[in-house]
């Protein structure tokens, strides 16, 4: 009997413990500098609702709805200037996440329908600002989603200056781009990559410079990740000319590459990658196409600049440099023209031939002139 009682108490205890543990802590991993919205999962605050957001146990925000459903929302932690409350849903947006913002966030909802609690544990990964993307006009730009692969539940939206331009609903298998918006400036220019949901904008024009935002959420999770890119287009490409046999250096334009940067040099010949620095590892003469670069390439491991030695006419053309890292994305193009050394020989031959021609023409003229003068002399003699 005593044993049964003990088991009963134990069962009760287990139940209570389980009751507490059913509260799941959602783990949210955010790239520092990005933003995140923690969702209340309430579509509309009802009258008499009280929402309280806490960070590490301290109250940071409170939302009250009175009897007439007049909502009052307040961030109580004044030093946190990066918090924003949604007055309709009670969602908490944390912008520009810093290390100090990482930790446990809790939401208590007290309403006439009962009370509930949600917890989020935010951890920060690496450092990131608004990504600055520099792209040459007429070139293409890839804005990475940051996902290695889209998962079944992922919902992705892309906006340009607050206008929806692309959407992915992986659950429904829908990949849509909206290139009619904003007077059609994106027409035929928007593409989504199937695997990662990254946005590709082709044939860049100045009027598509500006802020791009991606939101990523999962249907099963209660938060949305945001990432912004500041895209600026720049006119033209850098042009360089060289004489066959000399060296040409294409400058990356960055003083130093970061440890997380991936540097890729591509040549238009076969659109192949010819040199690469991937997280500190230098690879040159990857030489996709046909061995035309073999033994000619030198990559500066500090700056990422590329030198082509003993350049030949077959190296002329367009080169692309892509720098992608946590903190920046840079796309550049270079156009190299190569003068053949034979060119000088041709010019010399042409000059010599021209001089010879002049001499011959001069000689003929002199002879003709003399003949005419002789004719006149004979005419004079006859009178
Ligand atoms: C991302 O979500 C926020 C609200 O959480 C919204 O204001 C913003 O427009 C959304 N951006 C995109 C790209 O969907
Ligand atoms: C995505 O598609 C699923 C299935 O069709 C649908 O239930 C869900 O509401 C869609 N999500 C969005 C954000 O449109
Ligand atoms: C955007 O710029 C391109 C080229 O500069 C121009 O042809 C196009 O009409 C512009 N579109 C809008 C909507 O301004
Ligand atoms: C992406 O998916 C679409 C539709 O399923 C398909 O038509 C297209 O070929 C795919 N593209 C790539 C690069 O896999
Ligand atoms: C985006 O970059 C441009 C040029 O670098 C700058 O003038 C602009 O202020 C930036 N915008 C934002 C929102 O950072």
UniProtKB/TrEMBL annotation:
The chain crosses the membrane at residues 343-367. Residues 1-19 form the signal peptide. Residues 25-125, 130-234, 237-339 form the Immunoglobulin domain. Keywords: Membrane, Signal, Transmembrane, Transmembrane helix. Gene3D superfamilies: Immunoglobulins. Coiled coil: none annotated. InterPro entries: Ig-like_dom_sf (IPR036179), Ig-like_fold (IPR013783), Ig_sub (IPR003599). It comes from the Eukaryota. This is Uncharacterized protein LOC113039316. It comes from Carassius auratus. The lineage of its organism: Eukaryota, Metazoa, Chordata, Craniata, Vertebrata. The gene is LOC113039316.
């Amino acid at each position: 009997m005593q044993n049964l009682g003990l088991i009963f108490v134990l069962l009760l205890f287990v139940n209570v413990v389980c009751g507490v543990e059913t509260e799941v802590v959602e783990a949210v991993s955010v790239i520092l500098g990005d933003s995140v919205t923690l969702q209340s999962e309430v579509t509309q605050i009802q009258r008499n609702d009280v929402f309280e957001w806490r960070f590490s146990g301290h109250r940071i925000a409170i939302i009250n709805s009175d009897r007439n459903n007049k909502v009052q929302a307040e961030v109580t932690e004044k030093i946190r200037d990066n918090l924003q409350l949604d007055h309709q849903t009670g969602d908490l947006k944390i912008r520009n996440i810093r290390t100090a913002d990482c930790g446990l966030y809790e939401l208590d909802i007290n309403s006439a329908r009962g009370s509930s609690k949600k917890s989020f544990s935010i951890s920060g990964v690496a450092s990131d600002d608004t990504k600055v993307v520099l792209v040459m006009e007429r070139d293409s730009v890839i804005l990475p989603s940051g996902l290695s692969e889209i998962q079944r539940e992922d919902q992705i939206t892309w906006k340009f200056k607050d206008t929806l331009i692309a959407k992915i609903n992986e659950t429904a298998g829908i990949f849509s781009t909206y290139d009619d918006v904003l007077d059609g400036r994106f027409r035929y220019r928007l593409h989504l990559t199937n695997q990662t949901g990254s946005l590709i904008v082709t044939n860049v024009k100045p009027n598509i410079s500006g802020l791009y935002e991606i939101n990523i959420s999962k249907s099963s999770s209660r938060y949305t990740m945001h990432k912004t890119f500041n895209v600026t287009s720049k006119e033209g490409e850098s042009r360089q000319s060289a004489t066959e046999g000399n060296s040409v250096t294409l400058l990356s334009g960055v003083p130093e590459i970061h440890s997380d940067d991936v540097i890729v040099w591509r040549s238009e010949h076969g659109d192949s990658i010819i040199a690469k620095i991937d997280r500190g590892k230098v690879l040159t003469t990857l030489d996709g196409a046909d061995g035309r670069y073999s033994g000619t390439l030198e990559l500066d491991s500090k700056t990422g600049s590329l030198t082509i030695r003993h350049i030949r006419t077959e190296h002329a053309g367009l080169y692309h440099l892509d720098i992608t890292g946590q903190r920046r994305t840079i796309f550049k193009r270079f156009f190299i023209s190569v003068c053949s050394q034979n060119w000088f020989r041709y010019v010399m031959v042409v000059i010599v031939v021209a001089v010879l021609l002049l001499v011959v023409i001069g000689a003929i003229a002199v002879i003709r002139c003399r003949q005419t003068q002789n004719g006149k002399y004979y005419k004079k003699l006859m009178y």
